[in-house]
Amino acid sequence: METISNLFKWKHYEAGIILLTVRWYSKYSLSYRDVAEMMEERGLNISHTTIMRWVHQFGPEIDKRIRPYLKITNDSYRVDETYIRVRGHWKYLYRAVDSEGSTIDSMLSENRDIQAAKRFFKKAISSPHNQSPRVITVDKNPAYPPAFEQLMDEKELSKETLVRQIKYLNNIVEQDHRFIKKITNPMMGFKSFHTAEKTIMGIEAFHMLRKEQVEIPPVLSYVEWIHELFGLTA
């Protein structure tokens, strides 16, 4: 993991200012220009393109740094895909939550097929904060049954895992999509798949923080705790 000196080297603004703009953009329905204007009101002239670069760099970094502190999710997976516009075309954001609404994982994909489903489940199952699924609830996407069969044959998924294709049981993940789409919709689409992926990682990280999925010492606010993760002193 990069040190604070390397992460913020050659930056013209303090680390706390950079993390503040990333947090505002990733947590609220704001454009890059909105965040730039809000910083200007505080006496800081930061271009919206600079803030965009910070979001692309530090959103994934925040996601990486909070993952060791995520609380364990339960073994009932609720899985669904939602749509994200990239360069005028729809891409697929695979997302899973447990039966209590805690985020299990997410993955942006060019395609909605068997291989994409397998990649997503391998990613989710391998995350240390996730249990192996006892039951997986999905929609009627025809790619799921063969994907699960292949994962079971490859011993990535237990053959005892119950797979249910029952749409109404997935209301909890469909509701959870709304918090992500509330942030991404004002963007009017992304310019590239790579930047979409990086931006969504930051949005998902702050969404998990909002849902209190992270073990944060009770004496610290989550903002103070994020600063500690980056080695910033109060």
From TrEMBL:
<feature type="domain" description="Integrase catalytic">
    <location>
        <begin position="64"/>
        <end position="234"/>
    </location>
</feature>
<keyword id="KW-0238">DNA-binding</keyword>
<dbReference type="InterPro" id="IPR012337">
    <property type="entry name" value="RNaseH-like_sf"/>
</dbReference>
<keyword id="KW-0815">Transposition</keyword>
<dbReference type="InterPro" id="IPR032874">
    <property type="entry name" value="DDE_dom"/>
</dbReference>
<dbReference type="InterPro" id="IPR052183">
    <property type="entry name" value="IS_Transposase"/>
</dbReference>
<dbReference type="GO" id="GO:0003677">
    <property type="term" value="F:DNA binding"/>
</dbReference>
<dbReference type="InterPro" id="IPR047930">
    <property type="entry name" value="Transpos_IS6"/>
</dbReference>
<dbReference type="GO" id="GO:0015074">
    <property type="term" value="P:DNA integration"/>
</dbReference>
<dbReference type="GO" id="GO:0032196">
    <property type="term" value="P:transposition"/>
</dbReference>
<protein>
    <submittedName>
        <fullName>Transposase</fullName>
    </submittedName>
</protein>
<keyword id="KW-0233">DNA recombination</keyword>
<dbReference type="GO" id="GO:0006310">
    <property type="term" value="P:DNA recombination"/>
</dbReference>
<dbReference type="Pfam" id="PF13610">
    <property type="entry name" value="DDE_Tnp_IS240"/>
</dbReference>
<dbReference type="InterPro" id="IPR001584">
    <property type="entry name" value="Integrase_cat-core"/>
</dbReference>
